[in-house]
Amino acid sequence: MTPGRMSREVPLFRPLTSWRPKLILGSLLAGAVAALLFYSWGYQVRNDIGVTGLNRPVFWGFYITNFVFWIGISHAGTLISAILRVTSAEWRRPVTRCAEAITVFALSIGGLFPLIHLGRPWLFWFMIPLPNYRGLWPNFRSPLVWDMMAIGTYLTGSILYLLLPMLPDLAILRDRHIADNPNSARARIYRFLALGWRGTAQQWHSLESGIRALAVIIIPVAVSVHTIVSWDFSMTRQPMWHSTIFGPYFVVGAIYSGIAVLMVAMYLLRRGMGLESYLNDKIFNNLGLLFLTFTLIWSYFTFAEHLTVWYGNEPSEMAVFTERISGQYAWVFWAMILLNVALPMLVLSFPLGRKPFFTAIVGVGVLIGMWIERFLIVVGTLSLPRLDFTVGTYQPSWTELGILVGSFGLFVLLYLIFVQIAPIVSIWEVREGEHHLGQVRPASEHLTVETT
Amino acid sequence: MQRNEKTWLHAVFESPIDAQGALQKLTEYGFDSNDIEVRSSIPLEGLYPPDLHVRSHVPLMAVLGGIVGGICAFMLTSLTSQAYPMETGGMPIVPLPTTGVITFEGIAIGAILTTVATVLYECGLPFFRMKSGPLDHYLAEGQIVIAAFMRADEYSDWTSKAVATKRQGPHQPPHSVTNVKGV
Amino acid sequence: MTRWGMVIDTDRCTGCGACVVACHAENNIQTVGEEEARNGRAMHWLRIERHYEGEFPDIQVRFLPVLCQQCGSAPCEPVCPVYATYRTPEGLNAMVYSRCIGTRYCANNCPYTVRFFNWHAGEWPKPLDRQLNPDVSVRPAGVMEKCTFCVQRIQEGQDRAKDESRQVTDGDIKTACSQSCPARAITFGDLENSESRVAQMAKSARASHLLEDLGTDPSVIYLQGGEEH
User: Of A325, A295, A294, A328, which is closest to residue A309 (Cα–Cα)?
Assistant: First the structure.
C-alpha cells in the first residue's frame, strides 16, 4: 500500500466508516423536501386527480413532463458508463459509480410519475401481464405497455449493473470493518452486502465477463427506453408529436440531460466530499467535451425538427409551432434555446469553461432547458388540438409543483443515503487503473507471512 | 496438529510484482494451480498461476438467456392476445412490429438476468458462511494474499524458502494453523 | 352486420342546445360548475361548436354539433394499455369504465377532442339524484368517458325487438340527441342497412366526415351546403 493512495482513499472511506454530520443534515433536509412529494401525492389520491391543473384538452402536464425528464436523466449513468466501459476509456474509472447511481435513482423516481399521473393509481396493476380473474391481459399494442416493459427492464438492468461491480468494494468495506470490530453493525451489514466475495481469480474473471456483458446489453436497452418514451408521443397523430425523428431526438436529449446532471453531481461530490484527486479537472474536461458534443447534436435535432414543421406548413402543426416560437410559449422556448444551445456552446467551447464550476453551472442550465423542452412538447401540442374550438391552456396547481420539487428532494435523499452506504468512486476500478498505469510503487519492503 | 494434515498457508504481498515472484517460486516448487489461491482487491490479469484455468460462461449464457427471454416475451404477447381476442375493428391483434418491441425487452431482460445469475453461480455467491481470515484487511488495503494448500510438514519448509525471498523486515513465524479454505 | 351511425345536417342545426341538455340528462353526465368549467373541465359528450363566417355586421354563425365520431379506425383504441376502450361488433367505440385506470392516453390521441375525464366524481345532491338514469352507470373519479351513441337505448331497442320476435327496424332506436332535436338535424340508424334513413342520407353529395383526411373512418356524417341552406 502506497502512502499516496492511502491518503487519497481517506475521503472515500470517511462517510462509510463514521457518521458525517454534514451528510446526515443534508439527508434530513432532502428528506423534508421529499416529504412534499409524498404529502402532495397523498393529497391527490385522497382528493382525486382533479387537484391538478390538468383539463381538457391538456390531459397530460407536469407529471408526464417530469416522467420524461427523470427518465432522461437516468441515461446519465448506465448509458454513459456503459459506453465508456465498452470503449475502455481509462478516465471513466472514478465516474462510473456515481453515474450509475444517478441512473438507478432517477429511474425509480421517473417510474413513479406514470403512477402519480394515473386517474386511479391503485389499479395500475391492470397494466401488468398477470394471470387474472378477468381473463384479460394488457394491450401489448399500447406504447404505455411498452414503456412499462422497457422501464422495468432498464431498472432491473441498471440496479444489477450498479450492484455487480460494487461487490468487490463492499468486500473491501467488509474486511475493513471486520478488522476494526467484527461485531459492529457496519461489519455485519457489509458482510451481508458483500455476499461473501473473496476476490479469487475465478471470481474476478467471472465478474469482469459479467460487467462487460451487462455493459453491452444495457446500451441498447437504454436507447430503447427513451425511444419508447418518445413513442408515447409519436405513435399518436397529434400535431408536432407524430414525428419520426422523435426516437433519436429523445435519446440524444436524454443523454444530454444525463451528462448535465452528472456534471452537477460530480461537482457537488467533489466539493462536498473532498474527492478532488479522483474527480479531477481532466475528467471534467473530457466530460465537458462530451457535453459539448451533445449540445451540438441536440441543437441539430431541434433545428431539423422545427425546420421540417415550418417548411411543411401544415395548418394544425403550424398552430403548435407558431404558439411555440412566437406565441404564449415563446419566452420559455427561447429560454430553452438560450440554456440548451447558446450557453453551453459559449462556455464549453473554451478550456476554461470546462473547469468543474463552469460545467456544473452549464449543467444546471441544461437541466432547466431540457425540462422546458419536455414541457413544450407535452403541453404545447395538447393545448392546441386540431379542432380549434377546443383550444385550451394549462396552469399547474400547487400539488403538481409540490410533487416536482419533492422529486428533486427524493433524488438528493436517495443519493445521499447511497453515498453513506457505498463508495461513490469505485475503489477497485481506480486501483486497477493505477495498476495498469504502473502507479503502484513496486518497492515492497517486506513480506508478511501468516497462516490461519 | 497432525503432521500430514493439509492446510492453507497465507502470505501477503504489497505489490503485484512481489506476488508474481512468489507465485513463480510456488510453481517451481511443484505446487498445483488448484493448491494455490490468489486473492486481491483488483483483477490481476496474468498474475495467476500459469496453469490455472479460470473460465467464464457468461457470454454464452447471456446469449442463451436472451433467446429464452425473447421467446417468452413473444409467447406472452401473442398467446395472451389470442387467448382473449379483443374486437379491434379490423386492426391486427398481434402485429409483428409492436410484438417486436416487447420481444426486444424480453431478450434484454433474459440476457441481463442470466448474466448476473451466471456470474453469481461461477463465483459461488452468495456465500454468507464465509469466514474472514486475519489477513483479509490487507486485501482491503489493496494488498495481495496468496494461499498455498500444503501438508503441515511442508509448510515450515516452504515458509523458510518463501521468507528467503524477502529482502528485509520482521517475520513472525506462524503460530496457529486452521483450515479456512472457503471455496 | 350492423354499424350504428349518425347523420347531422348542419344546415338544419339552429344551435339551440337541446341535444346537449338531453345528452346530459340521458347519460348522467356531471355538471362541473362554473369554476371547473372555466378551468376547461366542462363535460359535454355532445358540444355545439360555433364558427363565425364573415366580418361584422355581415356575419353568419354556423353550428357544428361534435360528439364522439365512433371511428371505424379509431386512434384512441390501440393506445389504451388496458383495453378500457375497444370496438364492439356493432361498430361502437365502447368505453369500459371499470377497466379504465386513467392514463388519458386515448384522449390525447383523439383528433376530435371528444373524450372527457372525470377529474372529480360527479355530485347529484338530493333530490337531484332522483333524475339519474338507472340504465347508465355513474362514473367514478379518474376514468374517461365519452359519447356512447346511447348504447343503453340501442340495447333496449334490440331487447324489445327480440321480445316481439322481429328485427330492429329503422327508427326503432333514437339517441337522446336525435330524439330531442327540434330541427330534426340529427338522424340515427344502421349504416349497413341500405334501407335506413342514415344510409340514404350518407350517400348525399352534401355528406362529409369531420377531419376526413385523417382516415379515421367516422360513423358520424355531416351534411352541409345544399338547397335547404
Answer: A325
Q: How far is B100 from chain C (nearest CA, A)?
A: 16
By Cβ distance, the residue of A136, A142, A389 closest to C49 is A389
Q: A102: Cβ–Cβ under 8 A, 6 or more apart, which residues? A: A73, A74, A76, A77, A258, A261, A262, A265, A415
- Measured between CB atoms, which of A167, A178, A451 is closest to B136? A178
Q: Which amino acid is at A290?
A: L
Q: Minimal CA–CA distance to C90: which of C6, C2, C171, C29?
A: C2
Domains present along chain C, CATH in parentheses: 4-223 (3.30.70.20)
Total domains in chain A come to 1
Q: Which CATH number do you get for residue A169?
A: 1.20.1630.10
pLDDT recorded at residue A12: 83
Say whether pLDDT at B166 is over 70: no
Within chain B, what is the greatest distance between any pair of CA atoms?
Answer: 87
Residue C114 DSSP SS3: coil
- In tens, the pLDDT along A183-201 reads 888 888 998 998 988 888 8
Measured CA to CA, the distance from residue C127 to residue C133 in angstroms comes to 14
In this structure, chain C runs to a length of: 229
Contact between A82 and A220 under an 8 Å Cβ cutoff? The reply is no
Q: How far apart are CA A101 and CA A163, in angstroms?
A: 9
How many H helices and E strands in chain C?
A: 7, 10
Nearest Cα residue to A153 out of A96, A218, A235: A218
Whole-prediction pTM value?
A: 0.91
Q: Which residue has the cell 403548435?
A: A320
| Calpha distance C65→C71 (Å, rounded) | 16
| Contact (CB<8Å) B41/A195 | no
Asked whether residue A1 is domain-assigned, the answer is: no
Asked if the ipTM is above 0.95, the reply is: no
Q: Does B125 contact chain A (CB < 8 Å)?
A: yes
